[in-house]
């Protein structure tokens, strides 16, 4: 059942729980939105729009910002919001450059979902992020069976062959995957019904400081090498793999080739950078070492493999 949001009789816009459209109760008992009532502040007579009683005296204490909300109405509004959220399905999809087929993903999987052709699709790039993930946020306003909708998407992702090692997409609906997500991360995603993030990089991370990006990995370096490097770093730095605190991923898309080391909550980024700079690695029959090439966004986490 759809509840109709009560609206302000002056501007005919729906009231909101907070902000410019919050309902304000005047002394006369009439209610209008904050926006409309602010007009009274500059009006000479300062009378209620409906009953014409003087409601604002020439007194600072009676300024609009000091007037009380209509709390009863706010309560009703909150219930309406909750009810709406119950029927809303929100899907968040974050893809790294390796799975840049975001449009393909959207057209092929998302739009095939039944019952919800009306999802506004918000696509944005995490500009501030070191790896510039593409993020798709889907908000379906009215989905009666959310479990089923999410399940359908989950099924399609796997059925239509996104190679798990290449796709860099995880559907956290999968129970096994869910178990791997750290609690803090799960909590931060709770408002989403359905989350896909870079494959197997489920840790909580800060986009500014906890990535190490290594450009120009040796020719032939692939995701197996990335997993090997991951094991080496974990082993040498005493990180436990089951804590999911570190993940090394290899990304290749058109001319962009790089390795990203995601460091979670372990706080060992400095140590890991030191380790990389000091160690020699054998990859694709090349002996390489990580060196700092130049400073990009952050001075310490932009490295390059050099042949030695
Ligand atoms: Zn209004
Ligand atoms: Zn009035």
Brief sketch in words of this structure:
With 308 residues, the protein is of the alpha+beta class.
Q: In words, what does this structure look like?
A:
- The chain has helices at residues 34-42, 71-86, 102-108, 146-159, 164-167, 175-180, 183-188, 223-236, 269-278; strands spanning 23-25, 31-33, 89-95, 121-125, 134-140, 170-171, 194-197, 211-215, 246-253, 256-263, 280-283, 286-292, 302-307.
- A 6-stranded mixed beta sheet has the order 9-10-8-13-12-11. It has a 5-stranded mixed beta sheet with strand order 4-5-3-7-6, with helices on one face. A two-stranded antiparallel sheet has the order 1-2.
- A hairpin with a 2-residue loop joins strand 9 (246-253) and strand 10.
- The chain is of the alpha+beta class and 308 residues long.
- It has 3 domains: 19-84, Herpes Virus-1 (2-Layer Sandwich), CATH 3.30.40; 87-197, Alpha-Beta Plaits (2-Layer Sandwich), CATH 3.30.70; 211-307.
- The chain contains 9 helices and 13 strands.
- The longest helix is centred in the first third of the chain and has 16 residues, at 71-86.
- The termini are far apart.
- The structure holds zinc ion (ZN) (2 copies).
- InterPro entries: E3_ubiquitin-ligase_RING, Znf-RING_euk, Znf_RING, Znf_RING/FYVE/PHD, Znf_RING_CS.
- Residues 8-52 form the RING-type domain.
- One of its GO terms (molecular function) is zinc ion binding.
- Keywords: Metal-binding, Zinc, Zinc-finger.
- This is E3 ubiquitin-protein ligase trim23-like.
């Amino acid at each position: 059942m759809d509840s109709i949001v009560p609206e302000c009789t002056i501007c005919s816009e729906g009231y909101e729980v907070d902000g410019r459209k919050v309902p304000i109760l005047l002394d006369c008992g009439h209610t209008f939105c904050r926006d409309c009532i602010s007009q009274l502040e500059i009006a000479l007579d300062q009378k209620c729009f409906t009953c014409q009683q003087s409601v604002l005296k020439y007194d600072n204490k009676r300024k609009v910002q000091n007037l009380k909300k209509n709390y009863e109405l706010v309560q009703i509004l909150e219930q309406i919001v909750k009810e709406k959220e119950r029927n809303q399905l929100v899907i968040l999809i974050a893809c790294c450059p390796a799975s840049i087929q975001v449009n393909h993903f959207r057209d092929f999987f998302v739009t095939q979902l039944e019952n919800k052709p009306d999802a506004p699709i918000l696509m944005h790039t995490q500009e501030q992020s070191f790896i510039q993930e593409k993020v798709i946020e889907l908000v379906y306003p009215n989905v009666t069976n959310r479990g089923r909708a999410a399940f359908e998407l989950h099924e399609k992702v796997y059925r239509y062959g996104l190679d798990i090692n290449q796709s860099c997409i995880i559907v956290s609906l999968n129970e096994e995957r869910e178990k791997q997500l750290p609690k803090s991360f799960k909590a931060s995603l709770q408002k989403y019904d359905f989350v896909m993030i870079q494959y197997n990089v489920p840790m909580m991370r800060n986009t500014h400081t906890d990535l190490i990006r290594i450009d120009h990995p040796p020719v032939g370096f692939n995701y197996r090498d990335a997993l090997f490097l991951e094991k080496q770093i974990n082993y040498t730095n005493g990180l436990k793999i089951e804590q999911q605190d570190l993940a090394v991923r290899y990304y290749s898309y058109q001319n962009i080739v790089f390795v990203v080391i995601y460091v979670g909550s372990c706080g060992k980024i400095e140590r890991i950078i030191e380790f990389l700079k000091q160690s020699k690695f054998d990859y694709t029959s090349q002996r390489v070492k990580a060196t700092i090439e130049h400073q990009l966004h952050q001075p310490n986490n932009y490295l390059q493999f050099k042949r030695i």
